[in-house]
């Protein structure tokens, strides 16, 4: 960023922090804080191990120093300002999930945002319907970049170490699924229920046992719909499957897919299929693509809701589950106005913002302030003189 | 719960608060007790417990016929905890915890329903429920290796994990193990450890022998790629992350290398600092009392330590299993 650009962005951020407060996390005095500043001279370095006794102190700090990025610890510490982890004395941590489009798809910003929102919805459904977390204990935040953070503040999870958290994140991601467990008969009902009413019993499958069977069936049906020569070649490429077996399997695939889940694994080809990367990818799609290391790390710093993301100029928006469906980051996370600002765009750039679609050519042009902030923060434009 | 266990029953579950109270009433001063003849008997029995733990003894029936007084029998459990604490090795501690849990589980299987319910309740498990809250379940299972225990493989609905018949017994056993393991090692006064030194010496020797028999001599050519990569990194003078140091040290310790041998590995680094290394190695190998089980492949991956994965890796999910597998293959060939 050139000095003029830096000055412009910093001023706008300052203005924002004059009128808006951060969303203060619970037990503020037990949290560690970290900040990255707009200082162009220094390389990007975080000032951390900070602590604040009350919201006023925190607010005053942010207003006067106007950081580019604001983070706080998901952990609670006895002495959050101590310089080393040991001296901080860890006293628990919220359960966190990070969904970042960068780890999911590549493409235009709006498309990435839409996709990561779907993943977040899947995650929320699993957390509430399956794992049983109360909606009131779940907070969502738009990250200000390309994703969402989920904070589960339930007191029951606070003391968990990485291992307990791993169980949960593996569940939401579908990591370590055992085909035998997934396809085993039963869905919580008795044996005789199963025999008397197979369709009903299958309807009773929930969670991963349902997702797994559905995914496997879809996989089989896709295979059946493929060009036979191609499908045979694919199957014959799997470990231990010959051409002949593959062809026989394909002839049978329809009835197999319609049959009982517990019969599927008896088939050698199905067993090979479920172990192949193609199917594993599909299973990952059936789960939610949360970033595992974030959840298992019990000493993480996370962006503070209510702050601005210095790499996009967007607001880290705190959200309630209720409001999530209607949330559109390209409108709701934009906090700046529409007065004209003259920028020098380094390359062609297309995006939508506040309901307008922009397709801009490189060069000097006037754009609304909100877009100017976005472009400057992303590093694709500088403020042009003479405006 | 309005249940009172009698002394005969308490000896089966010496970790219960009630059992400990009984023993404490009997033993006033530990120093004096250890010098007395009942103390000798209890110490002898404590040693048996630790030896049984080390040798994976699974027969518990005969203990019923022991003619040791219940108070002394329970005291022997407490002394066994002192013994492993004085030795200070984490894997020994884990063995004892596992042994005691299996022993209790053995008796529980044939126990009166209300006593079984009481013991389970004492360790925080409700035997009456067909499902367990997710938040409780994930606290119980991390150390259970079998993949059927992974939350992702369970029938989970509305915040509850359904349990199959019989599984609750396995969870009770695991819970008892975890409670005992978490309490250990105890901070034992140096004077007491000195007094126990003859016995702890024998135990340490037996353990060393056990490890050697289990893994045989150390064979570097059977190391998994991740461990070889770490060793190479050390040799090249790269600064390892904490997790990297932890992974290599705990791995080498588990396959039977002692502190000095492990320090030799670190000594391959150009900027080797003997004091620092000894300190860290001792810490990780259990002197500090923290857990030192080497990380699984999943954890290695999370920390970016799973380097140069090869074909044999597909058959294992733990670097230790890789090592065992490779050694066996090599043995057969040679
Ligand atoms: S798969 Fe496991 S054993 Fe193989 S290199 Fe990775 S961590 Fe090591």
UniProtKB/TrEMBL annotation, chain A:
Its cofactor is Mg(2+); Mn(2+). It comes from the Archaea. SUPFAM superfamilies: Prim-pol domain. The keyword Kinase does not apply. Keywords: DNA replication, DNA-directed RNA polymerase, Magnesium, Manganese, Metal-binding, Nucleotidyltransferase, Primosome, Transcription, Transferase. Its EC number is 2.7.7.-. Heterodimer of a small subunit (PriS) and a large subunit (PriL). Catalytic subunit of DNA primase, an RNA polymerase that catalyzes the synthesis of short RNA molecules used as primers for DNA polymerase during DNA replication. The small subunit contains the primase catalytic core and has DNA synthesis activity on its own. Binding to the large subunit stabilizes and modulates the activity, increasing the rate of DNA synthesis while decreasing the length of the DNA fragments, and conferring RNA synthesis capability. The DNA polymerase activity may enable DNA primase to also catalyze primer extension after primer synthesis. May also play a role in DNA repair. Belongs to the eukaryotic-type primase small subunit family. This is DNA primase small subunit PriS. It comes from Methanoculleus sediminis.
Automatic annotation (TrEMBL), chain B:
GO terms for cellular component: primosome complex. One of its GO terms (biological process) is DNA replication, synthesis of primer. CDD domains: PriL. InterPro entries: DNA_primase_C, DNA_primase_lsu_euk/arc, DNA_primase_lsu_PriL. Binds 1 [4Fe-4S] cluster. It comes from the Archaea. Its cofactor is [4Fe-4S] cluster. The keyword Transport does not apply. Regulatory subunit of DNA primase, an RNA polymerase that catalyzes the synthesis of short RNA molecules used as primers for DNA polymerase during DNA replication. Stabilizes and modulates the activity of the small subunit, increasing the rate of DNA synthesis, and conferring RNA synthesis capability. The DNA polymerase activity may enable DNA primase to also catalyze primer extension after primer synthesis. May also play a role in DNA repair. Heterodimer of a small subunit (PriS) and a large subunit (PriL). This is DNA primase large subunit PriL. The gene is priL.
């Amino acid at each position: 960023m050139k000095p003029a650009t830096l000055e412009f962005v910093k001023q706008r951020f300052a203005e924002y922090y004059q009128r808006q407060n951060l969303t203060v996390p619970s037990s503020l005095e037990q949290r560690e804080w970290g900040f990255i500043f707009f200082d162009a001279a220094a390389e990007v370095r975080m000032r951390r191990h900070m602590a604040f006794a009350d919201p006023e102190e925190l607010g005053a700090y942010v207003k006067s120093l106007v950081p580019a990025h604001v983070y706080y610890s998901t952990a609670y510490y006895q002495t959050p300002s101590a310089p080393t982890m040991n001296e901080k004395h860890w006293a628990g941590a919220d359960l966190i999930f990070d969904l970042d489009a960068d780890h999911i798809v590549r493409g235009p910003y709006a498309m990435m945002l839409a996709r990561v929102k779907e993943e977040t919805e899947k995650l929320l459904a699993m957390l509430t319907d399956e794992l049983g977390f109360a909606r009131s204990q779940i907070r969502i935040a738009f990250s200000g970049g390309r994703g969402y953070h989920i904070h589960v503040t339930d007191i029951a999870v606070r003391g968990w170490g990485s291992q307990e958290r791993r169980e949960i994140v593996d569940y939401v991601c579908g990591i370590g699924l055992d085909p035998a467990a997934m396809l085993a008969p039963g869905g919580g009902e008795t044996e005789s229920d199963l025999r008397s009413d197979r369709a009903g019993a299958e309807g009773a499958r929930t969670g991963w046992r349902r997702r797994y069977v559905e995914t496997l069936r879809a996989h089989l049906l896709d295979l059946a719909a493929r060009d036979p020569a191609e499908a045979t070649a694919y199957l014959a490429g799997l470990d231990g499957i010959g051409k002949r077996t593959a062809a026989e399997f394909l002839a049978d695939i329809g009835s197999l897919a319609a049959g009982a889940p517990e019969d599927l694994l008896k088939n050698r080809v199905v067993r090979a299929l479920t172990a192949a990367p193609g199917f594993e990818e599909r299973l990952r799609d059936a789960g939610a693509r949360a970033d595992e290391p974030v959840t298992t790390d019990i000493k993480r710093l996370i962006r503070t809701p209510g702050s601005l993301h210095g790499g996009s100029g967007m607001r880290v928006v705190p959200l309630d589950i209720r409001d999530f469906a209607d949330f559109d980051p390209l409108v709701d996370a934009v906090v700046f106005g529409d007065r004209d600002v003259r920028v020098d765009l380094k390359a062609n750039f297309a995006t939508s913002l506040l309901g307008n679609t922009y397709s801009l050519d490189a060069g000097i042009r006037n754009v609304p302030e909100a877009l100017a902030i976005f472009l400057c923060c992303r590093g694709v434009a500088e403020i042009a003189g003479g405006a | 719960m309005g249940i009172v266990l009698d002394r005969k029953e308490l000896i089966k579950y010496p970790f219960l608060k009630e059992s400990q109270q009984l023993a404490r009433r009997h033993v006033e001063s530990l120093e004096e007790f250890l010098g007395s003849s009942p103390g000798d008997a209890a110490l002898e029995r404590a040693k048996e417990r630790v030896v049984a733990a080390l040798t994976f003894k699974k027969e518990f029936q005969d203990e019923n016929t022991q003619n040791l007084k219940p108070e002394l029998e329970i005291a022997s459990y407490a002394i066994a905890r002192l013994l492993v604490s004085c030795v200070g090795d984490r894997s020994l501690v884990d063995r004892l915890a596992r042994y005691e849990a299996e022993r209790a589980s053995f008796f529980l299987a044939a126990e009166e329903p209300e006593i079984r319910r009481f013991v389970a309740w004492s360790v925080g498990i409700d035997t009456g429920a067909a499902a367990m809250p997710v938040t409780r379940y994930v606290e119980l299972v991390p150390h259970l290796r079998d993949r059927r225990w992974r939350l992702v493989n369970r029938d989970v609905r509305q915040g509850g994990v359904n349990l199959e018949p019989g599984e609750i017994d396995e969870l009770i056993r695991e819970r008892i193990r975890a409670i005992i393991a978490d309490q250990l090692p105890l901070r034992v006064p140096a004077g007491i450890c000195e007094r126990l030194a003859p016995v702890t010496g024998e135990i340490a020797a037996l353990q060393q022998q056990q490890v050697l028999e289990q893994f045989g001599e150390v064979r570097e050519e059977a190391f998994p790629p991740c461990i070889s990569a770490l060793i190479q990194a050390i040799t090249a003078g790269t600064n390892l992350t904490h997790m990297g140091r932890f992974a290599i040290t705990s791995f080498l310790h588990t396959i039977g290398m002692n502190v000095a041998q492990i320090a030799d590995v670190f000594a391959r680094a150009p900027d080797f600092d003997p004091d620092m290394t000894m300190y860290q190695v001792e810490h990780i190998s259990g002197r500090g009392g923290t857990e030192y089980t080497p990380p699984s492949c999943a954890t290695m991956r999370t920390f970016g330590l799973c380097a140069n994965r090869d074909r044999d890796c597909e058959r294992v999910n733990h670097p230790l299993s890789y090592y065992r597998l490779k050694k066996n293959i090599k043995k057969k060939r040679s």
